[in-house]
Protein backbone atom coordinates (compact mmCIF):
# COMPACT_ATOMS: atom_id res chain seq x y z
CA UNK A 1 0.00 0.00 0.00
CA UNK A 2 1.34 3.42 -0.95
CA UNK A 3 1.94 6.02 1.70
CA UNK A 4 -0.60 8.80 1.99
CA UNK A 5 0.05 12.45 2.68
CA UNK A 6 -1.23 13.87 5.95
CA UNK A 7 -1.06 17.58 6.64
CA UNK A 8 -1.07 19.07 10.13
CA UNK A 9 -0.45 22.51 11.56
CA UNK A 10 1.82 22.56 14.61
CA UNK A 11 3.00 25.20 17.01
CA UNK A 12 6.50 26.44 16.22
CA UNK A 13 7.74 25.01 19.53
CA UNK A 14 6.65 21.50 18.51
CA UNK A 15 8.26 21.86 15.09
CA UNK A 16 11.46 22.97 16.79
CA UNK A 17 11.41 19.91 19.06
CA UNK A 18 10.80 17.62 16.09
CA UNK A 19 13.68 19.21 14.20
CA UNK A 20 16.01 18.76 17.18
CA UNK A 21 15.13 15.07 17.42
CA UNK A 22 15.57 14.67 13.67
CA UNK A 23 18.94 16.39 13.67
CA UNK A 24 20.18 14.40 16.68
CA UNK A 25 19.21 11.13 14.99
CA UNK A 26 20.21 12.24 11.49
CA UNK A 27 16.78 11.53 10.03
CA UNK A 28 14.07 13.69 8.48
CA UNK A 29 11.25 15.41 10.33
CA UNK A 30 8.79 13.08 8.56
CA UNK A 31 10.65 10.04 9.85
CA UNK A 32 10.56 11.41 13.40
CA UNK A 33 6.81 12.00 13.16
CA UNK A 34 6.23 8.51 11.73
CA UNK A 35 8.30 6.94 14.52
CA UNK A 36 6.48 8.89 17.23
CA UNK A 37 3.11 7.91 15.78
CA UNK A 38 4.15 4.25 15.58
CA UNK A 39 5.27 4.31 19.22
CA UNK A 40 2.08 6.00 20.34
CA UNK A 41 -0.21 3.66 18.44
CA UNK A 42 1.75 0.46 18.97
CA UNK A 43 -0.21 -0.81 21.97
CA UNK A 44 -3.57 0.70 21.16
CA UNK A 45 -6.47 -1.06 19.56
CA UNK A 46 -9.40 0.73 17.97
CA UNK A 47 -11.42 0.83 21.19
CA UNK A 48 -8.62 2.50 23.10
CA UNK A 49 -7.59 4.89 20.36
CA UNK A 50 -9.26 7.77 22.15
CA UNK A 51 -7.23 7.36 25.37
CA UNK A 52 -4.72 9.92 24.20
CA UNK A 53 -7.47 12.50 24.68
CA UNK A 54 -7.80 11.79 28.41
CA UNK A 55 -4.82 13.93 29.50
CA UNK A 56 -6.14 16.80 27.37
CA UNK A 57 -9.64 16.44 28.85
CA UNK A 58 -8.16 16.27 32.33
CA UNK A 59 -6.17 19.47 31.78
CA UNK A 60 -9.29 21.26 30.52
CA UNK A 61 -11.26 20.12 33.57
CA UNK A 62 -8.47 21.13 35.96
CA UNK A 63 -8.29 24.57 34.34
CA UNK A 64 -12.06 25.02 34.61
CA UNK A 65 -12.16 23.90 38.24
CA UNK A 66 -9.27 26.23 39.09
CA UNK A 67 -10.98 29.12 37.33
CA UNK A 68 -14.32 28.61 39.03
CA UNK A 69 -12.93 27.79 42.46
CA UNK A 70 -10.71 30.86 42.22
CA UNK A 71 -13.81 32.96 41.52
CA UNK A 72 -15.31 31.59 44.74
CA UNK A 73 -12.27 32.81 46.67
CA UNK A 74 -13.83 36.19 47.49
CA UNK A 75 -17.05 34.55 48.65
CA UNK A 76 -15.08 32.24 50.95
CA UNK A 77 -13.06 35.16 52.35
CA UNK A 78 -16.18 37.21 53.02
CA UNK A 79 -17.93 34.30 54.69
CA UNK A 80 -14.90 33.64 56.92
CA UNK A 81 -14.77 37.31 57.94
CA UNK A 82 -18.52 37.38 58.62
CA UNK A 83 -18.29 34.18 60.69
CA UNK A 84 -15.41 35.61 62.70
CA UNK A 85 -17.24 38.89 63.37
CA UNK A 86 -20.42 37.02 64.29
CA UNK A 87 -18.56 34.73 66.65
CA UNK A 88 -16.86 37.66 68.36
CA UNK A 89 -20.15 39.56 68.73
CA UNK A 90 -21.83 36.48 70.21
CA UNK A 91 -19.03 36.13 72.75
CA UNK A 92 -19.28 39.79 73.71
CA UNK A 93 -23.08 39.53 74.04
CA UNK A 94 -22.69 36.41 76.18
CA UNK A 95 -20.12 38.18 78.37
CA UNK A 96 -22.39 41.19 78.81
CA UNK A 97 -25.45 39.05 79.62
CA UNK A 98 -23.58 36.87 82.13
CA UNK A 99 -21.21 39.43 83.65
CA UNK A 100 -18.09 37.60 82.45
CA UNK A 101 -14.71 39.28 82.78
CA UNK A 102 -12.25 39.48 79.89
CA UNK A 103 -10.25 36.55 81.29
CA UNK A 104 -13.37 34.41 81.66
CA UNK A 105 -14.39 35.28 78.12
CA UNK A 106 -10.95 34.30 76.79
CA UNK A 107 -11.13 31.00 78.66
CA UNK A 108 -14.58 30.31 77.22
CA UNK A 109 -13.29 31.03 73.71
CA UNK A 110 -10.23 28.79 74.23
CA UNK A 111 -12.45 25.94 75.39
CA UNK A 112 -14.62 26.35 72.30
CA UNK A 113 -11.50 26.25 70.06
CA UNK A 114 -10.19 23.12 71.80
CA UNK A 115 -13.54 21.39 71.38
CA UNK A 116 -13.63 22.33 67.68
CA UNK A 117 -10.09 21.01 67.20
CA UNK A 118 -10.99 17.70 68.88
CA UNK A 119 -13.98 17.33 66.55
CA UNK A 120 -11.84 18.06 63.50
CA UNK A 121 -9.24 15.48 64.58
CA UNK A 122 -11.99 12.87 64.92
CA UNK A 123 -12.98 13.63 61.32
CA UNK A 124 -9.45 12.98 60.08
CA UNK A 125 -8.07 16.49 59.69
CA UNK A 126 -4.27 16.30 59.78
CA UNK A 127 -2.23 17.70 62.66
CA UNK A 128 -0.37 20.27 60.52
CA UNK A 129 -3.69 21.62 59.26
CA UNK A 130 -4.76 22.35 62.83
CA UNK A 131 -1.62 24.27 63.83
CA UNK A 132 -3.23 27.66 63.16
CA UNK A 133 -6.44 26.77 65.01
CA UNK A 134 -4.81 26.07 68.37
UniProtKB/TrEMBL annotation:
Superkingdom: Bacteria
Pfam families tied to this protein: RHH_1
Chain ranges of the Ribbon-helix-helix protein CopG domain: 5-42
Xref: InterPro entries: CopG (IPR002145), Ribbon_hlx_hlx (IPR010985)
Name of the protein: Ribbon-helix-helix protein CopG domain-containing protein
Organism: Deinococcus xinjiangensis
Amino acid sequence: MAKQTVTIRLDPVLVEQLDKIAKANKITRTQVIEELLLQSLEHQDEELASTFLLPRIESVLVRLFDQHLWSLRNVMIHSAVEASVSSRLNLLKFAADNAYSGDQLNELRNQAYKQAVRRLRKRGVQEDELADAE
